Amino acid sequence: MPRLVEIRNLQKTFQHMGKELTVLRGIDLDLDEGEVVAIVGPSGAGKSTFLHILGTLDLPSKGYVKIGGTDITKLGSGALADLRNRSVGFVFQFHHLLPEFTALENVMMPGMIAGKNRRDLERDATKLLEEVGLGKRATHRPGELSGGEQQRVALARALVLSPKLLLADEPTGNLDSATSAAIHDLFFQINKTHGTTVVIVTHNNDLARSMPRVVTLKDGRLDADERRAPVAMPSGASMAGKEPAQEPAKDATKEAGKEASDESVPEASA
User: Fold this and answer.
1) Top-level CATH class of 3-263?
2) Core vs surface per residue 10-47: b (16+ CB within 10 A) or e
């Protein structure tokens, strides 16, 4: 398969209380088009920092990252934002949906910001919601959806501009095991249907075991890079394209408070 991402000597250092904190210590890694990869490792290994740099949300202190042959370290802020919008989709632990908009409008939002044709966007967003099993929830607002449904909307939103690279940072960290398995299955379905390269940072052992490639980070370094035959997820994962079982909708006010509490203590090196 053609190479999509090339990473060489990736290093990242932060200034913390007047001292240098080195989080990434010279990582070399290639990702091919159409791969599905798990990034694992203990807390503080640098997984989230690595993912943020891969997604062009941050830049390395040393080394380079090439996406589709373009070195992100040589781009200005405008060109970098354009590359990010065209080539990278994100799914985070918290869905970050806009509460005043419907599921359909949330999925359409990246395309509307990019100035895409509204009619085409609505068609594509509707198709994506159907693909993730939420065709009948398109007019619901986030507060009317369960946690698993909200994450499905976030996944559809990440795909609306047809990115080559889909990055997920602990996408099921707040979900129960059955819902997590269904979301995991959707990532594989998206890879199969769209040919999207999928990179997932996870502490979920079942998900990691199901991945054909597992990259382990430890102390900011590449500790292992294993390729293996994927293992089937536990039962309950085969829900892609189906309407999910109805879960009780979460209290939006409580959820917002929880997110604010969780996000108030960032972990740059997680």
Assistant:
1) alpha beta
2) bbbeeeeeeeeeebbbebebebeebbbbbbbbeeebbb
Residue 72 in contact with residue 7, Cβ under 8 Å? no
pLDDT per residue as tens digits for the range 258-270: 444 343 334 444 4
Average pLDDT on 191-199 reads 94
- The pLDDT score that the predictor gives to residue 239 is 42
Mean pLDDT of 199-223: 91
Q: Amino acid identity, residue 38?
A: A
Per residue, what are the HEC states of the chain?
A: CCEEEEEEEEEEEEEECCEEEEEEEEEEEEEECCCEEEEECCCCCCHHHHHHHHCCCCCCCEEEEEECCEEHHHCCHHHHHHHHHHHEEEECCCCCCCCCCCHHHHHHHHHHHCCCCHHHHHHHHHHHHHHCCCHHHCCCCHHHCCHHHHHHHHHHHHHCCCCCEEEEECCCCCCCHHHHHHHHHHHHHHHHHHCCEEEEECCCHHHHHHCCEEEEEECCEEEEEEECCCCCCCCCCCCCCCCCCCCCCCCHHHHHHHHHHHHCCCCCCC
pLDDT in tens, 104-161: 999 999 999 888 999 999 999 999 999 999 999 999 999 999 988 998 999 999 999 9
The answer to whether 44 touches 270, Cβ cutoff 8 Å, is yes
Contact (CB, 8 A) for 28 and 222:
yes
